[in-house]
Every structure is written in structure tokens, then in C-alpha cells.
Design brief:
- This protein is α/β, with parallel strands linked by helices.
- It is about 50% helix and about 15% strand.
- α5 links the parallel β4 and β5.
- α7 runs antiparallel to α8 and α10 crosses α11.
- It is globular and about 45 Å long.
Length: about 250
Amino acid sequence: MTSLSVNLNKIAVLRNSRGGMMPDVLQAGRTCLDAGAHGLTVHPRPDARHIRSDDVHVLGMLCTERGVEFNIEGNPFAPPRPGYPGLLALCEMTRPAQVTLVPDGDGQLTSDHGFDFVRDGAALAPLIASFKALGCRVSLFVDVGDPDVTMAATLGADRVELYTGPYAESFTAGDASAAVSSAADTARRAQAAGMAVNAGHDLDQANLGHFLSNVPDVREVSIGHALISEALYAGLDATVRAYRRIVDRLATA
């Protein structure tokens, strides 16, 4: 079965653009969980452009109260700065069920590539061990087609998250066959190495079903930008329920 984790970053972007507390990320989180989301995802960046450290705490408590997964994404190499204690410190304070390590820099508009395991492996290994010592499942953001994806298991990762941006682009262009085939191959190689597979980035109601039908045993999809965008038209509750119908239909197929 594939779990749906809703990324709340875009709710925080809207709030931060005006200041104050509207829209309230905590209320948005409650609404998503009430509508059937299996968990919540946040990506607190050092520049606090959307989710802030205080949001991480309140949303972590919400997930604990509801008994659902809390997934924190972030760059493990980003140093602390005022208002951002660092990813490891945030996880130590909130103990998320899962931490997804992503190699994004301050200048990136969004996460758009996976780790280079040959270059970054030696530095990643002790960090992965530190997150796992906190009781967190560790997932690493990877490019579809990465020939070194199995190195993630050697480094200690429990899962990989497939970067699905290129798949979404090819789907929109009208031919996703090569992209989804490559994603399926990457997933199988990761699974053969002992890891589970997550997926995320630009997945939406149009392309999600095709992806899950063709990529084996995807354990979790993290969806934010498209889901929140669609919710502007249909409402947050209805949109989350629509995504649940997609993942639930495929689970029973």
C-alpha cells in the first residue's frame, strides 16, 4: 500500500507572504489528516522561506497526537543559523518517524536533484547514523536512473525517495514511457539492495496513478505543490480525499 504524505510548505509560503498566522499551517495539517492523509511532510530550509522551526514543533506534536507519520525533509549539510538550529537538532527535538535527506542549497527554488553518492557518501554515512540513533527512518533523495543508487543502502539508508520531476515533465509532454520505465528500474535496484522506495516532486492527480501502476511497491508519495494548487479550486479536504482514492484504488487493484 502507498501512503500519502501531504507537504505543507506552500501553506507556509502563503502565510509568510503576508505575515501573521493566516493561513494556519496547523489547521491545514489537521484538515489534511481529517481528510485521510497518512502523514505530513515539512521541509524547513535555513532561510525560513516557508516552514519555520516553530511550525516543525507544532506539526510534530499534531502527528504524535494523531499517531501518524511526520516526515522532515532537509539538507543535512546546511549549518545552523539564527532561527534554524540545523536539521539534526530539529529531529532531535521533534523525533519524526522519517527524515528525508535532500541536497538542496539556499539558491535553489525547489529540490531538483538527488545526491551524488560517490562525492557525498563519506560525509553522509555518519550523518545517517546520527539520524537513525534518534529513531528516525532515513530516506535519501535520489535521481531516477542513478547508477549508484544501491550505495544508499551501504551508507545506512532505509529508503530512497525517487525525484519524479522529470517523469512529471515527460507525462505532461505526452510520453512518459521511458521516464516511468527508468523509475521502475531504479526502484527495483534499490529494493534489491534492501531499501524501500518513496517518491515525490510534481506528482499530481493526473500523473500519480500512472506512476504507481508502473513503479513497483512505492511505499509513500509526498505531495505538496500540486495538491495545494488543486485545493485552491476544489478545497483542501476534497483534494486530499481525491488523492486517497488514487492510492487506495491502486492498493486493491
